[in-house]
Amino acid sequence: MVCKITHGILRLLNKGGTALPGKLALKICPEVLEKTSRGVSTLMVTGTNGKTTSVRMAETALQNAGLDAFSNRSGANLIGGIACEFIVNTNLFVRPKKKWAVIECDEAAARQVFRATKPKAVLVTNLFKDQLDRYGTLTTPRDAIAQGLSATPETLVCLNADCPMAASIADKVPNEILWYGMSTGDKLSPESGEESRCVNCGAKLHYGYVTYANLGGFYCPKCGARRHDTLVTVSDVLPDGSFVISDGSEKTLAECALPGLYNIYNAAGVTALMTAAGAELRCTLKAVSSFECGFGRMEEFALGKLGARMILIKNAAAADQTLETIRSDKSAKSLVFAINDRPADGTDISWLDDADFGVIRRMRNLKNVYCTGDRSDAMAQRLEREGVECETFSSYAKLLKRLRNEDAFIYILPTYTAMLEMRQELVHRLGGKNFWE
Q1: Read out DSSP for 197-265?
Q2: What is the secondary structure of 151-195 as a DSSP string?
Q3: What pLDDT does 32 receive?
Q4: Is residue 102 within a helix (H) or strand (E), and if so which, with residue range?
Q5: Cα 201 from chain centroid?
Q6: What is the C-alpha to C-alpha distance for residues 396 and 426, in angstroms, rounded to an integer?
Q7: Strand, coil or helix: what is 346?
Q8: CA-based angle 396:402:403, to the nearest 5?
Q9: CA atoms in the 13 A half-sphere facing the CB of 289
Q10: Pairwise CA distance, residues 160 & 196, whole Å
Q11: How far apart are CA 50 and CA 128, in angstroms?
Q12: What per-residue confidence (pLDDT) applies to 132?
């Protein structure tokens, strides 16, 4: 009741009510998540990039299959926010209103959350270099996920076979594994400064192909570790962005509602997750082609003369793929980088050095580049090293005033807290949904 009342008050005050109500409930009853998740078939999504988008795809796929589901649409993916969603889904008798859940879970929170909710299946999207100030090592989030899975051995795990770090989870858990990935790529070596050494023995990995970052057909010449064969496979990506995918029994041409190779990976992961849930492929691919994107993930706004799109970036792999996607747009465009280094973003912004911002010089019809946020100075210096000129703004309000008459499509690339702040300004000025909707 404390959680529900607090949640209701915060929503009335338009404050979101995403994590605090759950935190209060957990202080009163530490087992509240375990109790309120009983009777719910839970699908979990964790990993570095793609969690929110994958959850939106999976939630839509369940609805297409006629299964009523809830999710943590606000992105509150620590135990407090997750507990709040499960509590709000219960009636006065602590019975679930909806019998399915698709939940985004922070990697470090997996230890507690998986043990409490005992999910039917878990999707691990990828594990890239991210928030080292928080995790300390590259293996810390991997180990947290593995510990959570070991506590619930009946959970089916969907692993990205192309990601060396994510794939290594299989050696640490007793769970059944459902592998997914891409069987083709057009690069021969890793990029974005991602780790390309064997997780097991430390030897330099060799690749038959690379899709992006350090994902692809890897193998270790020393200990023999290699990419696992996949059940769910993307076998071809066509020039128009469509792709050929198989779930092990059916092969078909599919489209994704959002552009970018990383979103095709999200689609493959969700196909694996929905296969684990028993949903038909047609329900999943219909969702992949039509789902509503999450806040700040390819979200569009009527800013400037031609409009704007906001795309969250928080590490080198995400930045590289986002810039490559933008580069494929041949029309007139301007870029906005909004960089913060608060705890929710990761106070370590060394990833700016790893990302390939040199691709900006190769963009056609690039009009202007702007920088804002707490670390706009660091971003401007990074662009200067690449020979890219930019204009810096000390406040979002001044920047948005400048962008009102921008005669090019605007791509806004913020870190997490900058995204929340800029989005709030945009919704206030232009209208739109609250981030938890």
Answers
A1: B-TTT-PBPEEEEEEETTEEEEE-TTT--BPPP-SEEEEEE-TTS-EEEE-SS-EEEE--SS-SHHHHH
A2: T-TTSEEEEETT-HHHHGGGGG--S-EEEEEES--SBSS--TT--
A3: 93
A4: strand 100-104
A5: 29
A6: 9
A7: coil
A8: 85
A9: 13
A10: 16
A11: 11
A12: 66
Q: Pick from 267, 374, 383, 241: which is nearest to 319 by CA?
A: 383
Amino acid identity for residue 11 in this structure: R
What is the distance between the alpha carbons of residues 40 and 365, in angstroms, rounded to a whole number?
50
AA letter at 347 = T
Would you tell me how many other CB atoms lie within 10 Å of the CB of residue 432? 17
Task: List beta partners, residue 420.
Answer: none
Which secondary-structure segment (H or E) carries 273?
A: helix 261-277
Please work out, in degrees rounded to the nearest 5, the angle formed at the alpha carbon of residue 252 by the alpha carbons of 251 and 256: 130
Only one residue has tokens 């309120």, namely 36
What angle do helix axes 79-88 and 110-117 make, rounded to 10 degrees? Answer: 30
Distance in angstroms (rounded) separating the CA atoms of residues 334 and 342:
26
Per-position DSSP letters for 284-342, written without gaps between them: HHHHHHHPPPPTTEEEEE--TTT-EEEE---SHHHHHHHHHHHHT--S-EEEEEE---S
Sheet containing 409-414: give its strands across: 297-301, 308-311, 409-414, 333-338, 366-372, 391-392
Long-range contacts, stretch 186-191, CB < 8 angstroms, 24+ apart: 187/211, 187/212, 187/216, 190/214, 190/216, 191/320, 191/356
- Give the per-residue pLDDT at 105: 96
- Helix, coil or strand: residue 59: helix
Nearest CA-CA partner of 276 in 148, 180, 151, 178: 178
Of 76, 80, 79, nearest to 24 by C-alpha is: 80
Low-confidence ranges of the chain (pLDDT < 50): none
- Tell me what pLDDT residue 133 has: 66
pTM of the complete model: 0.89
Alpha helices in 104-170 (DSSP H): 110-117, 132-135, 140-150, 164-167
